[in-house]
Amino acid sequence: MNKVLLLFFLGLIFYVLDKYYYPCKKKVSLEHNILHYFHNVTAIIIYIGPFIFKDRRILYALLLSTIGLIVQGIINPNKEQTCILMPIYNKKCGIDENRPLYDIFSLLQIKRRLSMESFNFVYYLVHTSLAIYTISKLMK
User: Fold this and answer.
1) Inter-residue contact 92 to 110 (CB < 8 Å)
2) Which one of 41, 66, 74, 90 counts the least CB within 10 Å of its CB?
């Protein structure tokens, strides 16, 4: 299966899971749902992309994205929310602003099992590891 199609399909799965576990309490526009879907696809690409892509341009973009998430999480005053887009989405949806995106951490129930401080450590460790792995692929 084409790598891009696989990523969009996995993004669709996580989009559906996110909608299932955290349904909107308000009616939202189609554009809002499309943005939510692409947010899920982007998360999948950041987590899986370094392992399946070899194109240096894509790897540089993934490295910048991963570093951006690390920096964003550090400077974000709300330590419960590692992504600045989620409070905006959640507010329009009429749900708790601190509700995180349903991602691989949710699927593995890591968020539920750890304290917020421990989860943040794991989150940054994963993203730092992804950045190091991507750098190592770029150095080859």
Assistant:
1) no
2) 74
- Global confidence as pTM: 0.85
What torsion do the CA atoms of 61, 65, 68, 69 make, to the nearest 10 degrees?
-170
Cα separation values, 10 from 51, 64, 91, 126, Å: 15, 22, 25, 19
43-81 burial, b at 16+ Cβ within 10 Å, e below that, comes to bbbbbbbbeebeeeebbebbbebbeebbeebeeeeeeeb
- Tens digit of each residue's pLDDT, the chain (140 residues): 698 899 999 999 999 999 999 999 999 999 999 999 999 999 999 999 999 999 999 999 999 999 988 888 788 766 666 677 788 888 899 998 888 888 888 888 888 888 878 888 888 899 899 999 999 999 98
DSSP 97: T
Is the CB of residue 51 less than 8 Å from the CB of residue 134?
no
